[in-house]
Amino acid sequence: MLAQFEMSIPLVAAPMSGGPTTPAMVSAATAAGGLGMLAAGYKTVEAVEAELKIVRAEGIPFGINLFAPNPVPVDPDSYRAYAAIIQQEADRFGLVLPADPIEDTDWFDEKIALLLDDPVPMVSFTFGIPPSSVIAALQRADTVVVQTVTTPDEAAQADQAGVDMLALQAVVAGGHSGTLSPRRPLQPVPLVDLVRQVTAAVPLPVLAAGGLATPDAVSDIIRAGAAAAVVGTVLLRATESGASATHQAALTDPARTETVLTHAFTGRPARGLRNTFIDNHEAQAPFGYPAIHHLTSPLRKAAAAAGKPDYVHLWAGTGYRHATAEPTADILRRLASGL
Ligand SMILES: Cc1cc2nc3c(=O)[nH]c(=O)nc-3n(C[C@H](O)[C@H](O)[C@H](O)COP(=O)(O)O)c2cc1C
User: Fold this and answer.
1) What is the CATH number of the domain that holds 18?
2) What CDD domains does the database record attribute to this sequence (predicted)?
3) What atom of ligand 1 comes closest to residue 19's alpha carbon?
4) Residues 215 and 291 in one domain
5) Is 147 in the pocket of ligand 1 (CB under 6 A)?
6) Range of the domain at 261
7) Are 206 and 112 part of one and the same domain?
8) Is the pLDDT reported for residue 65 higher than 90?
9) Is 211 in the pocket of ligand 1 (CB under 6 A)?
């Protein structure tokens, strides 16, 4: 199934929404012999269309990732209590945050319509498994469908739904977990073990993600049975990365000594560099996606622009010390050098 992407190195540049993934990163990853993936999450349909146009012009294989709706409804009273606390933080930036929960689907149906109208080689989903009718429609359009999963049980569900491949994500991965059950604590199972468990139980190719930051780690995961390694955090400082300067600087700040799982920024578990916002608000934050994302988003944007990392979601996996300022192609080729 991966063969059609003509990869000479089994490395996938993870889709990273919120800025880091750019069309240039996608093209560079594919040109290096790996596979690049656009990130459609949070973007308008028009913005996705514009990025597709740029990558299509290169005439190369690529994938695109969508957030599939799997709402985590927020309790309205808990939302208002948390919003009142976070508003105090926003006051110092002169911002007014949404007082009531905003729920939406991130234009899921519109994005699917776009990808059916003008099909792409690969579509991947995270957060939820889309309806089988959506999966089948994409497959009829010759699109390979990939589902992000975090446990053997989720892998079985994705297989049942009819997807072609799995993106298997470990708890050490940077950014949001693709867990289908965001309120349930994530299990710290090593990626190598997860790959062995899932490949033994489910007959689908596995793209393995989470904490892969060295050539040895990539070799180990391929030996464990993964069809390819997916890397995100190691690309955050790449030449083609669109991660904010504030985010990139935090990754090399010696004072940032650990990553933690947090739902304080978005109401869904995600891994990032520990900062003051997480320390102060993790215990107060309700689960609730996308409402908590929409609540804190204006604050995070303003803080990133103002160079205040303690109010920014500094998404990073445990391998962040290996993120280097180099071309994407060099990073990917080095990661494949032990194979
Ligand atoms: C900044 C950032 C943004 C991310 N955004 C997305 C996304 O939009 N969709 C998605 O499926 N995964 C997203 N991820 C998770 C990656 O796809 C991947 O699972 C993860 O980066 C792998 O772990 P690593 O960061 O340790 O390499 C993101 C990760 C990071 C670091």
Assistant:
1) 3.20.20.70
2) NPD_like
3) 1
4) no
5) no
6) 74-104+257-313
7) yes
8) yes
9) yes
> Can you tell me the mean pLDDT for 4-16?
95
Considering the domain boundaries, does residue 318 fall inside one? no
At 3, is the pLDDT very low, low, confident or very high (cuts 50, 70, 90)?
A: confident
Question: What is d(CA 337, CA 327) in angstroms, rounded to the nearest whole number?
Answer: 16
How many whole angstroms separate alpha carbon 212 and alpha carbon 339? 14
Does 193 share its domain with 58?
yes
Judgement on whether residues 119 and 99 belong to the same structural domain of the protein: no
Check residue 303 and give its pLDDT. 97
Q: Are residues 59 and 181 in the same domain?
A: yes
Which pLDDT belongs to residue 6? 87
Whether ligand 1 lies within 6 angstroms of the CB of 63 is answered as no
- Confirm whether 248 is domain-assigned: no
Return the ligand 1 atom nearest residue 40 CA: 8
Q: What's the total number of domains in the chain?
A: 2
Q: Where does the pLDDT of residue 58 fall: very low under 50, low under 70, confident under 90, or very high at 90 and above?
A: very high
Domain check: are 142 and 278 in the same one?
no
Q: Whose CA is nearest to atom 3 of ligand 1?
A: 16
Average pLDDT on 194-218 reads 98
Mean pLDDT over 315-322 rounds to 98
Mutation choice for ligand 1 from 25, 64, 172, 176, CB with most ligand atoms inside 8 A = 176
Q: How far is the CA of 210 from the centre of ligand 1 (A)?
A: 8
d(CA 235, CA 175): 13
Per residue in 211-253, pLDDT (tens digit) is 999 999 999 999 999 999 999 999 999 999 999 999 999 999 9
Instruction: Report which ligand 1 atom has the smallest distance to the Cα of 234.
Output: 27
Same domain, yes or no: 126 and 142: yes
Structural domain includes residue 245: no
